Amino acid sequence: MENLYYKCDGFQMRVTKNMLGAVQDYMDEAYIAATNLQAELQKKEKWTGQSELVAEAFLDLLVQYQKDFYGDGNPQELAISAVKELNDNVSDFYDNFPDYNTLKEFTE
Prior knowledge:
This protein is 78% helix and 0% strand.
């Protein structure tokens, strides 16, 4: 009988954590760039009319969205922390969690 129980791959978890970290870096850079652009646009005196209003409204929404993913305690940072914690404790789970070991016995 084929063994069907699943065991996390530490290498793939590290890859995932690294990719989440890279995404966070890009989100931080995007937020800083958006706020810099927002400040730059507010200084421009020659740009007026509906195109200015539409661009500012779009940029305001973009900055509001990106702010949620910037700094401490954002969802991306929490995901990175959770993957790291899982990776740090996964061997304990496999060795000491009775329900997992029971499942493993059924599939062997």
